[in-house]
Amino acid sequence: MKLIYKVYFCLFVAATFSAACNKQFLDRPPLSQISTDNFYQTSNDLRLATAALYGGKIWGDWNYNCYLPVGEVLSGNMAVGYWGDAVQLLTFSVTGQNSIMAANWSGMYKVIAHCNVTINAIQQKSPATLAEKDKNAAIAEAKFIRGFAYYSLATLWGAVPIIEDNSKLINSPLVNRVAVEDVFKFITNDLMFAAQTLPVTDAPGRATTWSAQGMLAKVYLTMAGLGQTSGVRNQAFLDSAKKYAGNVCKKSGLSLLPSYANLFRTQYNDNPESLFALQWAPGGGWLEGNMLQIYSPGGAEISANGSAGWFSIRPTVDMFQLYTKNDSVRRKATFMLKGDYYPELNAAGGGYTFKGNNGLKKHIIGTNVDNNAPTMNLTSSAEHNSLLRLADVYLIYAESILGNNATTADADALLYFNKVRQRAGIDPVTVLNADSIFNERRIELAGEGHFWYDLVRLSYYNPQKAISILNKQDRGTFTYDNGTVTPETPFGIITPANSNTFLFPLPSAEVTANPKLAEPPVHYF
């Protein structure tokens, strides 16, 4: 396999340590001093090794190319023009040559390869004198992150190769895809180990048992619908989702950050609501840092080093129409409308009033001064963007309680569902159904890369409903003036969604390099 084979060579000795993080999270030695023979000798070495898995170059391409285009453009929340591959996502016309999906494939396998190298080096190179507890904790961090990466791959492509030891690819570079049910079993095995091994608390930014249990709940909720096209989900998996999400809700001691908008400000990086976030340091080159500020709709006055954003991503009409008048807190924190005022952007200059029509607000954090980050540039935002947070798990818990019922007034489901709404200033509800939870997730998590995965999860057990949602969307952008919304023509002709829309063609370059990918999947267990 082209990508996986190449990744092995760039990783095996020391590249695991190339990730950039803040100095408090990671203060690593020079790369020249690191090898699998002279590292992994102390508990501090293990902490440095696993810290490198949370951000930097191994995540850079995925975070820039895939995080918003796949989660938001593909799902119909947002749109980008003048980028042909993003237009393919918007119009459901993705081919095997699509560079965004190829970057998603390669990006996740880069993360997996780094995790594999870390796990295997700890197992093979660390001395017997090193405490097993420390070794297992480090392995658990790597398995948690590896489980997250495989979840992304399985949700987008279904059957994918499982690689646990990249060194074996030297002699056998051609590998088969693995049946999707086995991929999900592998994911749950990784996350279960992490849930049982990781501590209940750790340094800010580090995964804990609550991170793993929250992710495990999401995976089980997804598995509950796999292959259940009749609309009835697997109750055992729903029960597992309920168990692990409930543990996070009731036993973690964590709570929602009081201010929704503050979730996306660097002063609140790694707040207690953040269960898993990428760790980024300001400064660094192309694809080495958090590049999300390039999507800024504003000018130099709200961008790092006076460099204006240049790749505007905008909400669709469909996304805009979801927000009620009372849901202004989340709307304003997610995307800007003409006339919106943000005191935290260009704070030294008196704040910022948006003069365009509309554009992304989440991940747009302002200037170097706004963030006390003098080395930050346009391609290295100081934001630690969260990939899993507590509100997500609250809503997973509510959905797992609803399960196969038409409605629920369960006290726990309502309690945690309403915590999310009340934080946003929205009135609580007294009964839940599938649509109310689905729409709440879409609004709460908009701009955070989740909605496409929610649509895929729905397509597993109710494909016609998932197809209908996509085909009813107005996927075009709009102008906005004095409260008047004027829809614009979408960027390209929208191909009607069908059952094949939720599974993507394998990247052509990967199939060419590894023809076995075109063969039927095999079983791993």
UniProtKB/TrEMBL annotation:
Subcellular location: Cell outer membrane
Assigned keywords, A-Z: Cell outer membrane, Membrane, Signal
CDD domains listed in its UniProt record: SusD
Segments forming domain RagB/SusD: 273-519
Signal peptide as annotated in the record: 1-20
Gene3D superfamilies: 1.25.40.390
InterPro entries associated with the record: SusD-like_N, SusD_RagB_dom, TPR-like_helical_dom_sf
Primary localization class, coarse: membrane
Pfam families assigned: SusD-like_3 (PF14322), SusD_RagB (PF07980)
GO CC aspect terms: cell outer membrane
Domain of life: Bacteria
Domain called SusD-like N-terminal: residue spans: 93-221
Cited SUPFAM superfamilies: TPR-like (SSF48452)
PROSITE patterns given in the database record: PROKAR_LIPOPROTEIN
Protein family: Belongs to the SusD family.
Name under which the protein is recorded: Carbohydrate-binding protein SusD
Taxonomic lineage of the native organism: Bacteria, Pseudomonadati, Bacteroidota, Chitinophagia, Chitinophagales
